[in-house]
TrEMBL record:
<feature type="transmembrane region" description="Helical">
    <location>
        <begin position="378"/>
        <end position="398"/>
    </location>
</feature>
<keyword id="KW-0813">Transport</keyword>
<feature type="transmembrane region" description="Helical">
    <location>
        <begin position="522"/>
        <end position="543"/>
    </location>
</feature>
<feature type="transmembrane region" description="Helical">
    <location>
        <begin position="36"/>
        <end position="56"/>
    </location>
</feature>
<dbReference type="GO" id="GO:0035673">
    <property type="term" value="F:oligopeptide transmembrane transporter activity"/>
</dbReference>
<comment type="similarity">
    <text>Belongs to the YSL (TC 2.A.67.2) family.</text>
</comment>
<feature type="transmembrane region" description="Helical">
    <location>
        <begin position="275"/>
        <end position="294"/>
    </location>
</feature>
<feature type="transmembrane region" description="Helical">
    <location>
        <begin position="429"/>
        <end position="449"/>
    </location>
</feature>
<dbReference type="GO" id="GO:0016020">
    <property type="term" value="C:membrane"/>
</dbReference>
<feature type="transmembrane region" description="Helical">
    <location>
        <begin position="215"/>
        <end position="245"/>
    </location>
</feature>
<feature type="transmembrane region" description="Helical">
    <location>
        <begin position="68"/>
        <end position="87"/>
    </location>
</feature>
<keyword id="KW-1133">Transmembrane helix</keyword>
<protein>
    <submittedName>
        <fullName>Uncharacterized protein</fullName>
    </submittedName>
</protein>
<dbReference type="InterPro" id="IPR045035">
    <property type="entry name" value="YSL-like"/>
</dbReference>
<keyword id="KW-0472">Membrane</keyword>
<dbReference type="InterPro" id="IPR004813">
    <property type="entry name" value="OPT"/>
</dbReference>
<dbReference type="Pfam" id="PF03169">
    <property type="entry name" value="OPT"/>
</dbReference>
Amino acid sequence: MTTNRGGESPRLNTDDELSVEHRFKGIEIHGWKDQLTLRVFGISFIVGSFLTIVLMKLSLSFSTWFPFNIPIASISLILLEAMVMALDSFGLIKNPITRQEITVMQGCVVGFSSIVYYGGFADYLFAMSELMAKEFKAGRDENNWTTIYLGWIIIYLFLVCFIGLFTIIPAAKVFIVRYRLIYPTSYFSAHFINVLRTPRQFSHQRFYSSLIPGAIAFGLICPHVLVFSFFIGSIISWGIFWPFIKSKEGVWYPKQTSTETVHGSYGYKVSLTSALFLGEGIFQLSLLALHTLYDMYLKKKPKRFIVPLREEEQHQQQQQDIDYSQITTATMSYDDQLRTKMFLKDQIPTPISIGGFLLTATISAVAIPFIFPQIEPRHIAAAYIAAPILNFCNAYTLGIADFNFASRYGKLAIFFFGSWIGLNHGGVLGSLVASGIIVAVMSSAADLIQNFKLAYMTLTSPWSLLIGQVIGTVMGCFIVPIVFFYFYNLPNFGDPNSEYEMGGAKKYRAFAIRASQGLDTLPMHCVTLAVISFMVSLSLNMVKEMASYLLSPVIQEYA
């Protein structure tokens, strides 16, 4: 067994066995337009609506946020398969549903139901309400709260939920084809789809690559170096660093502070972990930019026509001009070669993603201040400038460890924009809005990059997947607020003694109040430690990259 540098799972099939895609050989793959059928969106609407009701109930009852992506993706896929089987048993499906259609359904349902979480209904959105404002002494003025209406919630969701889709499209080719990141949830979802749709003649042996221990817990399929790093990180953090921070209680920060407030130990956790991931993400982004510039330089390098090149030099020059995807296919398995070819065939042009981002961001920056006068276009512009970088960092982490840190970055946004706007200028409400923008942009981008990985492994067109998620998001922008308002209009909603006490909204409100009071709310040495964490992350990545080029191929294999 061998693993590649990007962390792909071991290739379990040998030369004597048929690969996954060999089993589907001869089955027609429809064009991206034919993958977008009415039955796809009809089933997606039914499943998405049901899942939205369930997730909204859980979210409002327990104020839950899943840093892992396994729950929503897995549940939605199981519900989709159950729905398809039920319709098929009643004879309502004439032609078999293809794995490409199931993939588009999955993207549509995830885009639909994920709005329950990144829409902030259990935390930052309800934290803007007058009911939450009355729970605190500070920030009670009308400039720091708003009345919850269905109309502006729907408009707000339409303004923020589509921007993230355009920011991550250019990175899809890099992470999925070049770096070959795993995206564990999508990896297992794809195997689940491929297994259930294996042609009948192979049905007796279709579990050859799926029912393995790694399919039960995503940690078991992560590269060994990643599992080992988790282990070392746990020892350093919970065995050394956090006990040290705890020992400074009463010295660096007040005693008996809440575990979810920024002026206590939680402030260190938010700042330091975000700095670590930002450091690694920015390094990878910079490295990619350097590689791109170098490739452009090689392609524009003038050819020598007077003095003929030697055969060896000509060969090297030709190799430099070959696209990266063509270089790597020689070392890929049959499955990966076919998947890469199909994925790159229908690539979404970069100008479309850039143009879409600029258009949606401009509309959002102009329109949102009409809904929330406390936040100005310059604040929104700053959030959208940071969004592509944050999305790149988050997508890289997501591809390796299946962690979505959108909510963590959202809390950083509360602190940053709350300090910038100030309490007297509506900093509480403004920071909550800014947090919602960051979380919505990052979460929708995280969903899309995972769905692209799913499309890659099921030979689904990126175009059909993108359109499917866009349509699912449109459905969610209408249905999710309606479901929320059903619960919102229940008696005693938000009351501390009721079933829906909205503890998450209280924490976000308290966090926003502290943030709008300025930098002094951070615990002592928090910024210094965050800067150190950022530099350590950069340094470790630089050492790793230099070692891969300067030391032996063995180190390059396991770095």
